Amino acid sequence: MVDMAKVADVVLLMIDGNFGFEMETMEFLNVLAATGMPGNVFGILTHLDLFRKPQALRDAKRRLKRRLWSELYQGAHLFYLSGVLNGRYPDREIHNLSRYLSVMKNPRPLIWRNTHPFSVIDSYRDITHPTK
Membrane spanning segments where (predicted)? Predict the structure, then answer.
């Protein structure tokens, strides 16, 4: 989590709309703030199909949006994915999200990242011959 926070240009936070913010999400936001908050941090609410009443859905969206704004900044973008149908999110919602990501401006450069070169290693394999 710390490694990703140091090199991220765009952050998409997947938030379970039925549950709310989890501890890991809040920890990741704190790590982002400590390493230099990238300019493009977005929230994506999922599992919105689990709400039975429209009023409960509106209240949850409003509550989670205000919480995200208090953690990031006023006006932070929050996208909504209603639910999974046949193993996929609805095409229109994914299309809207991808269109927004494709036309957004490049993020501002992070001073911390420019002064501290960093790379993320996904896997490491030791190929040295074992000694006898």
Answer: none
**Is 123 a member of any domain?**
no
User: Domain total for the chain?
Assistant: 1
Q: Side-chain half-sphere of 91: how many Cα atoms within 13 Å? A: 1
pLDDT tens, position by position, 58-76 = 888 888 888 888 888 788 7
d(C-alpha 83, C-alpha 87), whole Å: 9
Residue-range definition of the domain harbouring residue 88: 2-115
Please give the backbone phi and psi of residue 80, each rounded to the nearest 5 degrees, phi first: -120, 125
Q: Which two tokens stand for residue 8?
A: 């991220």
Tell me what percent of the chain is helix, strand and coil, each rounded to the nearest 5: 45, 15, 40
